[in-house]
Amino acid sequence: MPRVIYVSAKGDSREVDVPVGATVMSAALKNGIDGIVAECGGVCMCSTCHVFVDEKFFGRLPPAQDTEEAVLEISAEERRPTSRLSCQIKVTEDLDGLIVRLPSRQR
Amino acid sequence: MPAGTVIIGTGQAGFQTAASLREEGYDAPVTLIGEEPHIPYQRPPLSKGFPLGKQGIADIELRPEKFYQDHRIELIAGMRVTALDRAAHSVGLASGSSIRYDKLVLAMGARNRLLPVKGADLDGVLYLRTLDEAIAVRHRLESAAEVVVVGGGFIGLELAAVARGLGKSVTVLEALPRLMSRAVAPVISEFFRDLHVGRGVAVHCGATVSEIAGARGKVRSVLLRDATSHSAELVLVGIGITPNLELARDAGLATANGIVVNDYLETNDPDVFAIGDCVEHPCIFAGARLRLESVQNAAEQAQCAAATIAGRRKPYTALPWFWTDQFDIKLQMAGISHRHDRVVTRGDPATRKFSVFHFQGERLAAIDSINRPLDHMIGRKLIAAGAPLAPEQVADENVDLRTLAPAPGQRAGAPGKN
Fold it and tell me: Which residues in chain B are contacts of A70 at CB distance < 8 A?
């Protein structure tokens, strides 16, 4: 099973096994990762699952759709070039070892 | 030992209150009591992906069961609260026991409005609000070929799209002259009518149901006041909700079209808060008392009440937003459009990408967007900022809306976000 590493704003990291096809957001909720809120449940209506994707992995992700790009405009912590919504990142074997950093606030 | 906070209701509002209290560092006991026999789950998917069979219960849980243990939230599911004794600071449960509170949060939600006609109790007439109801709808959709949806609001139309997507023959009956008329501009109603009709849904507006006819206890058809009849094996009713305010009213709390609260979501008893679908609050965007039915309102009122309970007193000023998914179209709405004097459109409805901006004078009051997510998100900033805008500016597609939004920290005027 691919692993995803969540790094909190304080710098603590946690490694989680995520089934292929699950999203980085849903895996965070299932594994009690604080810092991912997911208020809208994963439909690109809120920005509370915002993450910064490690540069090594960012280019391997399918590009963000317009709906996701729009939501990143309203993120609580300002977006950066590697910002994504974790609800839109589906885990694949190729993403094993994916590192995502959590913003200091989601709302 | 303190009694802590007791929250009644395990919907989005109740869940979020408990979660936010812990995020705020609140250390006293937190007890979350709900009538439904499930751990808190998301309601929006129930009328969208869930009936298609794509999602299981585990997919829509707000958090796994372990979350409640880890955060010392005592979850009492499947339990009705039968009494509120404000003098004793306690609530009575259907089990006969009672629980004391220091602070009480009423997140009681709402229940379906029932169709007040003969035959509404026949087998095959279903409503949708809870997970159990959604499971029943999903089960019935497996076998029914002819589906009649009563109510052309969000829930009815989402269910119509789901049923049609499953290949059913679908008819929508709406009593008012247009679809979703309470929430959106006429041009949006027309767009969705065309969308549904184009996908093979029969849509009848101005259609008042007079009776549901059946045989051997099972539904057979829906009769209208104009004497037409629509045959049905399954009738799905989505005609709105009624707030659950009886417990509050019987305890002497002020109620109107919801439990009445102040800017801090406090009832007329400072130890009792009320949030979510069951509440009428002073809405700064409407300039009036308002009861809202949405995830945004439930979740953000919950965070606000939790902050105040945890000692960080905070008024509720969040911008309302909503969405609906029907077929492959997402409609995004921001703000409150009740009082507007001018409507302008950005983009051409024929391209299936457009937004409708509702103005009250120079104040942008609300936006309805179809396939223009950036309009919606920037629109939220524009409405929250309350800065004056010219309708001509937003109607001009050559104007980048982002250039109209004030930079963070420069949010001008009220109403504003804090």
Answer: 373-374, 376-378
Secondary structure of residue B18 in the 3-state scheme: helix
- Domains identified in chain A, total number: 1
| pLDDT reported for residue B283 | 96
Q: Which domains does chain B have, with CATH numbers?
A: 5-111+242-309 (3.50.50.60), 125-239 (3.50.50.60), 328-403 (3.30.390.30)
d(CA A64, CA A25) in angstroms, rounded, equals 15
| Average pLDDT per 10 consecutive residues for chain B, totaling 418 residues | 96 98 97 97 95 86 96 98 98 98 98 97 98 97 97 98 97 98 94 98 98 97 97 98 98 98 98 98 95 97 98 97 96 92 94 95 94 96 91 93 75 41
- Between helix B131-143 and helix B154-165 the angle, nearest 10°, is 40
Chain B hits for A44, Cβ within 8 Å: 373
Residue A40 forms part of a structural domain? yes
Contact (CB<8Å) B373/A30 = no
Of B17, B71, B376, B377, which to mutate for an interface test with A (greatest number of A Cβ within 10 Å)? Answer: B377
| Shortest Cα–Cα distance, A11 to chain B (Å) | 18
Q: Are residues B402 and A73, on separate chains, in Cβ contact within 8 Å?
A: yes
A32 is in which domain, residue-wise? 3-101
User: Which residues of chain A does B295 touch, with a Cβ-Cβ cutoff of 8 Å?
Assistant: 39-41
Place of tokens 């002073």: B282
CATH number at residue A74: 3.10.20.30
Rounded to whole angstroms, what are the CA distances from B25 to A107, B301, B310? 17, 18, 7
